[in-house]
């Protein structure tokens, strides 16, 4: 591979790594990996591998039938893009569950070491479990708890070793038909935790489980069942992460909790799923007499304005000018080709430090250091290669720089433009014939005008003639005169170095097509980018024949080397021409400038600047002249990063693209969280039962955090308290969606719901959707909702104490979330605050 060259990939990419702090992954091959897709045969395979009893196999098959019969939820977020046939439902990483950390395979151990799980176990937890893809690979419980009869094991082990206890409670709180994703979990569940706390036993230190998705296109469907017998108490903590892959993954867990009389269970979740994970879980508890249930739930989840995006049919426009619904180009990374996708949202990120990235084939883009690019990693000894999304800060430049993805060319899906030109002027001596649609010949002529044409206006300011500065000896002159007659039926008047068209109607036609202006102000009209490839190439050829020339350097065999050079005093025009060239598969080089002083009258000096856009002669001249077109199937190709240089603070933007979550900007492929929907619920079934839910959501750019709680009061003297706290920034969206229900006979029930939202910018959004169903008159219900923002005074105060904007905003948000962090063990609280600061990086200012 040449250092200044590029190469293409057309094969499927098997593994993709990520770019958020937990986005790493290892290359471990599973002991067993099922084929993609859902089927009864898959269920039989899973059940046989797990050595399950017959009742569980039948349970799975019944659940699969319910899954097929259930419709997808049509409220909340858009889930239509989940492709259930492209998901791997079972991957067995190892053939057993370790009881000692030293037994765990080294590569899996390294993954959890980097996540801090063993350290947390040693310091804070009474027991710990670690699930890797589909199976729990490590499980431990302190001896003194086992001696008291506490059971803490993975769910697969519980089905085999405690079948009567599991069968008594499994699927009783969340039945198979509860919702489509509960049915899916019931069919293909694997892993998860089983906890039984005997009567009167108090587990004074938390039990912890950590769930890790490592594979791409993967579904994790753990099943957790917690039973706290009379007077028992336990705190269960779970954490979740996944690498950032280029394809989507699905997390659809089910959690059932049975809390007997006078027992207490606290269930805490700290989730920091990557942006490519659909997080769709069902969680429910049943509280008997004087029982207490606590849910503590936490969900955490750019380019400068100079970035140009190709929009159909508006042409390349600044990223800040995009609108939701615009059709732009994205990449289908399974087939490594370009497709059209819709813009879901445009996100203004404020001012941030930006960098200019230049590739070896002279494509340029300005981005913040955290903006992801698709990088090709190649191992020459083994011949293996894989793709990963990496932030700009991780990219290497120069001779050993990383190879990043660019668009070889855009799809040739343009159509000729219909010309709707109407001239109302009368008494015209020479009335030209106006074509109905654009053609190759017309576009060559307009390209020639862009380079060497200008208008003459009458004293009244109306245009009355058009000039083409093409000298008699130029190869383009005879073609120009012929096309003016053939296309417009006008007779040109050659005069010296110019060809004149003395027609005001023709002059107005040129203006109506978007070619008005002087040499310093002319632009390429946006509609031109939506033409067929041959018409765009003809336009480039016309401009070459006007303001371009070739400079030959050497002949090697039958190949002539050198450069094609386009010259102009209008740099913006050359930048637009460069994007047009990229769209048709040409390889323009950098734009350079030359400043020259010229003496004027009485010795005065004036500087004149000429800009040059160059292409390699050997690779591009035949394409421009129309004898050799580019690839008909636009693919991604990879080029080396030549340089990365800081350019100071800039206004930066990002966009959210549905489906693929990537887009083409300045000819370079870049990336733009999937959705979290979960609503932990409690059935207060015994007199005096209590339930608290504390839900925290942090939604950043492109994320949808749709969360809430359901409290069902079916017994008298019950109390529930829901506190929902959310922060949205960078165009993120948070929603509280809750249900508070009191059935007839549940006298003296007390319900409280409080929703606090913090919105950091005008592009972000927070919604509250409370539902109240009160069938008992003797009920006390309270609902409170507040929305606030970070004030300039607070930021100024903290910054005057030496904090950066990010540190100041993070401190305010951490204070906003104090109700959560006070409930966490110290390691989790520290990690929570660190995650907040990481997510808030650049959210303000």
Write up this protein:
This protein is α/β, with parallel strands linked by helices and 845 residues long. The strands form 7 sheets. Strands 7, 8, 10, 11, 13, 14, 16, 17, 39, 40, 42, 43, 45 and 47 form a 14-stranded mixed β-sheet that branches. Strands 1, 2, 19, 20, 21, 22, 23, 24, 25, 26, 27 and 36 form a 12-stranded mixed β-sheet that branches. A hairpin with a 5-residue loop joins strand 28 (453-457) and strand 29 (463-468). Helix 9 (440-452) runs parallel beside helix 12 (533-547) and helix 12 (533-547) runs antiparallel to helix 13. The longest helix has 16 residues, at 54-69.
Note the main attributes of this structure.
single chain; 845 residues; alpha/beta; 14-stranded mixed β-sheet; 12-stranded mixed β-sheet; 18 helices; disordered N terminus; disordered C terminus
Tally of contiguous helical segments = 18
The helix-and-strand class reads alpha/beta
- Using only CA atoms, what is the Rg? 33 Å
The pLDDT mean sits at: 76
> Unreliable runs, pLDDT <50, ≥5 residues?
1-28, 114-127, 241-247, 824-828, 838-845
Helix share of residues? 10-25%
Oligomer: single chain
Q: Which shape, going by the Cα principal axes?
A: elongated
The biggest beta sheet is recorded as: 14 strands, mixed
Secondary structure: number of strands: 48
Instruction: Give the termini distance in whole angstroms.
Output: 43 Å
Percentage beta strand: 35-45%
């Amino acid at each position: 591979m040449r250092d200044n060259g590029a190469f293409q990939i057309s094969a499927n990419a098997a593994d993709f790594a990520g770019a958020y702090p937990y986005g790493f992954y290892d290359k471990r091959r599973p002991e067993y990996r099922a084929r993609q897709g859902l089927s009864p045969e898959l269920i039989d395979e899973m059940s046989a591998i797990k050595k399950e009893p017959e009742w569980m196999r039948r349970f799975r098959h019944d659940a699969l039938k319910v899954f097929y019969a259930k419709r997808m939820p049509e409220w909340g977020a858009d889930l239509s893009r989940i492709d259930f046939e492209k998901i791997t439902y079972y991957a067995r990483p190892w053939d057993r569950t370790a009881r000692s950390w030293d037994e765990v395979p080294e590569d899996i151990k390294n993954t959890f070491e980097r996540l801090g799980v063993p350290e947390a176990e040693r310091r804070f937890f009474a027991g710990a479990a670690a699930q890797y893809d589909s199976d729990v690979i490590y499980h431990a419980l302190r001896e003194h708890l086992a001696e008291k009869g506490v059971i803490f094991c993975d769910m697969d082990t519980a089905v085999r070793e405690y079948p009567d206890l599991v069968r008594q409670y499994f699927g009783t709180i969340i039945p198979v038909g509860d919702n489509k994703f509960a049915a899916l979990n019931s069919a293909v569940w694997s892993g998860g935790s089983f906890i039984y706390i005997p009567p009167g036993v108090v587990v004074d230190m938390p039990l912890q489980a950590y769930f890790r998705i490592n594979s791409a296109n993967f579904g994790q469907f753990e099943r957790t069942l917690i039973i706290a017998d009379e007077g028992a108490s336990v705190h269960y903590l779970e954490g979740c992460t996944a690498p950032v892959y280029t394809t989507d993954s699905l997390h659809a867990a089910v959690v059932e909790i049975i809390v007997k009389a006078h027992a207490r269970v606290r269930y805490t979740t700290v989730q920091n799923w990557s942006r490519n994970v659909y997080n769709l879980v069902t969680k429910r508890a049943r509280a008997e007499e004087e029982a207490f249930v606590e849910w503590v739930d936490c969900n955490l989840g750019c380019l400068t304005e100079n970035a140009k995006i190709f929009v159909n049919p508006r042409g390349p426009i600044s990223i800040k000018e995009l609108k939701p619904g615009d059709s732009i180009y994205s990449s289908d990374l399974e087939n490594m080709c370009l497709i059209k996708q819709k813009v879901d949202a445009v996100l203004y990120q404020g001012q941030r430090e930006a960098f200019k990235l230049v590739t070896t084939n002279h494509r340029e883009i300005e981005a913040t250091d955290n903006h992801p690019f698709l990088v090709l990693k190649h191992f020459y000894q083994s011949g293996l290669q894989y793709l990963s999304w990496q932030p700009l800060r991780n990219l290497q430049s120069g001779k050993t720089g990383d190879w990043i993805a660019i668009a070889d060319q855009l799809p040739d899906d343009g159509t000729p433009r219909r010309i709707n030109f109407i001239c109302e002027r009368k008494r015209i001596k020479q009335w030209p014939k106006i074509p109905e649609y654009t053609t190759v010949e017309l576009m060559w002529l307009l390209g020639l005008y862009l380079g060497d044409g200008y208008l003459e206006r009458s004293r009244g300011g109306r245009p009355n003639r058009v000039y083409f500065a093409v000298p008699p000896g130029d190869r383009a002159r005879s073609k120009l005169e012929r096309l003016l007659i053939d296309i417009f039926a006008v007779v040109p008047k050659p005069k010296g170095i110019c060809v004149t068209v003395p027609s005001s109607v023709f002059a107005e036609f040129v203006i109506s097509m978007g070619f008005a202006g002087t040499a310093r102000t002319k632009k390429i009209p946006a509609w031109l980018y939506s033409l067929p490839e041959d018409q765009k190439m003809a336009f480039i050829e016309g401009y070459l024949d006007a303001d371009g020339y070739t400079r030959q350097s050497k002949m090697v065999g039958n190949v002539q080397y050198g450069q094609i050079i386009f010259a102009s005093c209008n740099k913006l025009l050359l930048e637009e021409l460069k994007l047009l060239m990229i769209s048709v598969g040409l390889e323009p080089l950098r734009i350079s400038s030359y400043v020259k002083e010229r003496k004027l009258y009485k010795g005065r000096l004036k500087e004149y600047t000429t800009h040059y856009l160059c292409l390699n002669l050997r690779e591009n001249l035949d394409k421009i002249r129309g004898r050799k077109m580019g690839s008909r199937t636009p693919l991604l190709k990879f080029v080396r990063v030549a340089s990365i240089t800081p350019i100071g603070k800039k206004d930066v933007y990002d966009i959210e693209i549905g489906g693929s979550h990537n887009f083409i900007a300045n000819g370079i492929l870049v990336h733009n969280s999937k959705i979290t929907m979960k609503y932990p619920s409690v059935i207060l079934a015994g007199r005096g039962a209590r339930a608290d839910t504390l839900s925290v959501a942090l939604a950043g750019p492109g994320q949808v955090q749709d969360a809430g709680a359901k409290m069902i009061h079916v017994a008298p003297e019950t109390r529930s308290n829901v506190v929902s706290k959310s922060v949205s920034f960078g165009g993120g969206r948070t929603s509280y969606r809750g249900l508070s229900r009191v059935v007839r006979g549940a006298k003296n029930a007390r319900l409280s719901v409080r929703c606090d939202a913090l919105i950091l910018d005008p592009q972000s959004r927070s919604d509250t959707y409370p539902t109240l169903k009160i069938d008992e008159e003797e009920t006390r219900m309270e609902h409170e909702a507040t929305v606030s923002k970070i004030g300039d005074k607070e930021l100024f105060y903290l910054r005057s104490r030496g904090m950066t904007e990010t540190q100041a905003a993070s401190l305010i948000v951490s204070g906003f979330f104090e109700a959560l962090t006070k409930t966490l063990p110290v390691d989790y609280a520290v990690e929570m605050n660190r995650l907040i600061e990481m997510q808030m990086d650049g959210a303000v200012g």
